[in-house]
Specification:
about 525 residues, alpha/beta, four-stranded antiparallel β-sheet, about 20% strand, globular
């Protein structure tokens, strides 16, 4: 048998939000930890908005004067995520939420207690605590008192780097070893236990080659996330470097391997196989090229079992500007689809199921005028760009409801019926037909009327981000990967989007990153159980 080329107590495969959390948690026990990444680290976390969903009275909430508790948080999330995990795990997630923010803060992640005063999909640089889900939407506010739980890492623009950067720096300071340019290819099993991995590495290539690899990987990550053609071109060059300079290595894990390799949204064939009816090709895959399902596949080859692999999250945000929440989201029949104040993933799911995946947002002249006044104050650069393009390119107008329907190709009678039912409910003081809260409803009466195209097919004017939510099934107490034959696979753990977790049934902003930290720490802590005191 070949000898090992490197070894550690714990080997973490994939170095994004879940990976760095697992590495830090394992290192805090005194274990020798080696983290590997196919590219340069950061993963989808570094590209993200840096939102962590947390509540139950975090220090940030308390500083902002927000009264929240674990029971209130649990009541909301139980309705939002259903049976993604057991009730006991969800309750533990809620109860440990304040400590999770404390842990992130201790490792240098900056938060700020500035509350956003309006409903939005992502706040401007003036605000760092907001309603990041459907807490204040119809139905949910009846189950639990609405509380702001979207904790945005403090940083300008999108804040993913403000979350991952400090964690990576802390891991380095605590002695976590990191090797980049290492692509894991197979799990090594000995007597049914995972004892290491096989991989291809370029970290022995000339420095100039490694620098080029790093530059190409950065371009692939961003702006490649917005331009899949560019990403594919970068991947050809990255694969060529690996082919020309990569060498096989075997890395031993004395105690455990933790898979934190992300989901599989970058693997079109895998997405199509598990969600054949989903219009994934019309969306914007959110993540890096490393989100190709390779970690999940390696574990399945080793006897693991997966779950919820058909679960997808697709986001169609209609705000900012917040005035748009007063509009009506309709399909091609003119029928309303949802309480428009719901989180964007709920609207995205409705559009995915709509005829032709087509949808529009109907606004009248008063709402449109109010929205235009809000764009500058409520939007960051990418939101402003998308809204302006939507208003100028992805819209059509008409003097009457019937006229705008005809121009958009929407059934005029159906649209008129939806508008009349909406307006009549407001006039009569009765509940909205789809549950929109009374304080968000606005009558649709004043022409000209505008239909904004929020369809899947509006990819150029209004891209629709999407990601996978399913993954490996794990023991919810330890993060150990479950085996198809029953029990768990000794020595193998998983976390983040490589595993089924809190957000596996549905997503709201910050819930995936919160689960990455929660499940990463769990897996990292339990992966060191075989480490002997030194």
């Amino acid at each position: 048998m070949r000898t090992w080329d490197d070894e550690a107590d714990v080997v973490v495969v994939g170095y994004g939000g879940a990976g760095v959390s697992a590495a830090l948690a394992a290192r805090e026990t005194g274990a020798d930890v080696l983290a590997l990444d196919r590219y340069m680290g950061g993963g989808a976390t570094a590209l993200s908005g840096g939102i962590v969903y947390a509540g139950a009275g975090t220090w940030v909430q308390r500083a902002a004067g927000i009264d929240d508790d674990a029971e209130n948080m649990f009541a909301y999330l139980e309705a939002e995520v259903g049976d993604a995990v057991s009730a006991a795990t969800l309750r533990r997630f809620c109860e440990q939420s304040p400590a999770l923010i404390d842990w992130l803060t201790e490792h240098g992640v900056p938060f700020q207690a500035s509350v956003c005063p309006y409903k939005t999909s992502y706040p401007t640089d003036d605000y760092y605590l907001y309603y990041s889900g459907s807490e204040n939407a119809g139905g949910f506010r009846d189950l639990a008192a609405p509380r702001q739980r979207g904790h945005r890492a403090h940083g300008r623009g999108v804040s993913g780097k403000a979350l991952f950067g400090p964690l990576a720096a802390s891991a380095d300071a605590h002695g976590v070893r990191v090797r980049t340019g290492v692509r894991a290819t197979r799990l090594v099993l000995e007597d049914g236990r995972v004892t290491g991995i096989e991989a291809i590495t370029i970290d022995r290539a000339p420095a100039s080659v490694r620098r080029r690899f790093a530059a190409l990987a950065r371009i692939s990550a961003k702006p490649g996330v917005y331009h899949q053609g560019l990403r594919r071109a970068m991947q050809v060059l990255l694969d060529r470097i690996e082919r020309d300079h990569g060498v096989p290595v075997r890395i031993r894990a004395r105690s455990g391997v933790v898979l934190t390799t992300g989901g599989f949204i970058a693997n079109g064939e895998m997405v199509a196989r598990h969600s054949p009816a989903y219009p994934w090709s019309q969306g914007l895959p959110l993540g890096t090229a490393g989100d190709d399902g390779s970690g999940i596949t390696m574990a399945l080859d080793a006897g693991a079992v997966s779950g919820k692999m058909d679960a997808m999250s697709t986001w169609r945000f209609i705000a900012p500007p917040s005035a748009f929440y007063g509009g009506l989201a309709v399909d091609s029949t003119g029928s309303r689809m949802i309480d428009e104040s719901r989180y964007g993933a709920a609207l995205g799911a409705k559009i995915a199921a709509a005829p032709g995946h087509r949808a529009w947002l109907l606004v009248d002249a008063e709402l449109a005028a109010e929205a235009r006044k809000q764009i500058g104050k409520q939007s960051v650069w990418f939101q402003r760009m998308q809204t302006e393009r939507l208003l100028r390119i992805g819209s059509c107008s008409g003097r009457t409801v019937e006229e705008v329907a005809a121009r958009a190709g929407v059934d005029a009678a159906g649209l008129r019926a939806s508008v009349d039912a909406h307006n009549r409910a407001i006039e009569d003081g009765v509940a909205d037909p789809l549950g929109k809260p009374a304080d968000i409803r606005r009558p649709i009466r004043t022409g000209p009327f505008t239909l904004l195209d929020i369809s899947f097919t509006a990819r150029l004017t209004y891209p629709m981000p999407m990601l996978t939510l399913g993954g490996l099934l794990v023991d919810e107490d330890t993060g150990a990967v479950r085996a198809a034959a029953g029990g768990v696979i000794p020595g193998l753990y998983a976390a983040g989007r490589a595993a089924v977790g809190i957000c596996a049934n549905g997503y709201v902003s910050g819930l995936s990153l919160a689960d990455c930290v929660f499940s990463g720490r769990r897996a990292g802590t339990h992966s060191v159980e075989r480490v002997r005191p030194r």
